[in-house]
Amino acid sequence: MEKKLARRRRLVLVPAPAQGHINPMMQLAKALHLKGFSITVAQTKFNYLNPSSDLSDFQFVTIPENLPVSDLKNLGPGRFLIKLAKECYVSFKELLGQLLVNEEIACVIYDEFMYFVEAAVEEFKLRNVILSTTSATAFVCRFVMCKLYAKDGLAQLKEEELVPELYPIRYKDLPSSVFASVECSVELFKNTCYKGTASSVIINTVRCLEISSFEWLQRELDIPVYPIGPLHMAVSAPRTSLLEENESCIEWLNKQKPSSVIYISLGSFTMMETKEVLEMASGLDSSNQHFLWVIRPGSVSGSEISEEELLKKMVTTDRGYIVKWAPQKQVLAHSAVRAFWSHCGWNSTLESLGEGVPMICRPFTTDQKGNARYLECVWKVGIQVEGKLERSAVEKAVKRLMVDEEGEEMKRRALSLKEKLKDSVLAQGSSHNSLDDFIKTL
Questions:
Q1: Cα 283 from chain centre
Q2: Counting beta carbons within 10 angstroms of the beta carbon of residue 165, is it exposed (0 to 12), middle (13 to 18) or buried (19 or more)?
Q3: Strands 10-14 and 337-342
Q4: Does the pLDDT at position 317 exceed 90?
Q5: Percent with pLDDT over 70 in the chain
Q6: Within this chain, do residues 120 and 53 fall inside the same structural domain, yes or no?
Q7: Dihedral of alpha carbons 351, 358, 212, 150, sign
Q8: Side-chain half-sphere of 127: how many Cα atoms within 13 Å?
Q9: pLDDT digits over 392-423, tens only?
Q10: Per UniProt, what is one Pfam family of this protein (predicted)?
Q11: Contact 230, 434 (CB under 8 A)
Q12: What are the DSSP E strand ranges found in 181-317?
């Protein structure tokens, strides 16, 4: 009996197969492991993580499924996740049964987009918890988008008007996807917003950033909602990048003056047309600012030449340095980096805020649009570049943030937010206490 009591309680975590979802789930896993829990990570072949030295204490199991690898690219994220849910429901239930033969499971924590987990655990009467790796505001926007669709089919989706009670979100900022139809997005969102038997929701954010959204969710869901982020600041982040990081850019940054570089990275999914890339390159050149630019292989469409050949044409100045992928947290923490041109994915947003780095916002799809609006209109640490991308707009935005007094003011606000986020994960901070409150329920 004493031996059983001394054994760590096991949690099963189910991340979604995308870099922006894997990172916070593994950070949460590490935080919970440090609190005394054993961790099992149930993953598909689409996000297969090899246990590194950072993750060696975790058990990794695979959810069997027969989807072709090409589905992830050919279907687009929305349709793919819907198909994956249908494919994995039975096999995950069988996997849970096998795990329970050997050990009790205290709780199953699943990414909101792996919603099949909720139905699978119900048969075993296991406690289950939703992890939202997007912002609280994005969660609210998905709810609202589903309600509006049921009412009028979202005829106003491209309109500039504000959504009632969701300032500063406009209808055009709701999380529609360039990869899927509105109908497909709504089908997916209905499932991600369905709490079912979930006992609580944990969100990788900070309460002070999104007070009104938390109040909205608490009323709508009627279960506890725990803001426990930024997770990358709460624990030393394990290495979970699915792409190889080029460390040479850190050496290049070491040679630059303090606060003299704009870092450019548009995430692990964003695609750009060749013309847009060339307009960006021209605008950056005209701005006379130093820049570190991440251009992911396969991320430029409409080009008959390789990214490598394109880059040689683009960068004709020694002010720029280009890599295929970068260690982003190290880059943003570097003293040479003054600003971040971003797609405004939630992880990138939190990492930038956590280092006090203001942003140029060029959202691409889904929740990125709402994040950009908050950066510009609520937190006032971002400049959004909307519409057709032209070199003059690029030059103007870069100079506003890197040269003008407006950029100095944004930097001061960003540094103030950095301190608030840092305080939130320290002992007795709001997110630290929220995580402790959540753990007490397990």
A1: 28
A2: exposed
A3: unpaired
A4: no
A5: 93
A6: yes
A7: negative
A8: 14
A9: 999 999 999 999 999 999 999 999 999 999 99
A10: UDPGT
A11: no
A12: 200-203, 225-227, 261-265, 272-273, 290-294, 300-301
| Residue 316 pLDDT class (50, 70, 90 cuts) | low
Nearest CA among 344, 432, 398, 328 for reference residue 138:
344
- CB burial of residue 108 (10 Å; 0-12, 13-18, 19+): buried
For the segment 371-390, the average pLDDT, to the nearest whole number, is 98
Q: How far apart are CA 6 and CA 426, in angstroms?
A: 28
Q: Give me the CATH number covering residue 226.
A: 3.40.50.2000
> Which range marks the domain in which residue 41 is found?
7-239+425-440
Residue 82 and residue 203 in one domain: yes
Q: 154 versus 257: which is more confidently predicted?
A: 257
**Total-model pTM:** 0.94
Q: For residues 200 and 441, is the Cβ–Cβ distance under 8 A?
A: yes
pLDDT(6) > 60: no
Are 211 and 350 contained in the same domain?
no
Q: Tokens in use for 228?
A: 């426990």
Q: Which amino acid is at 4?
A: K
Q: Which residue has the tokens 């993750």?
A: 55
Peptide bond into 258 cis (omega under 30): no
For residue 302, being part of any structural domain is answered with yes
| Chain mean pLDDT for the chain | 92
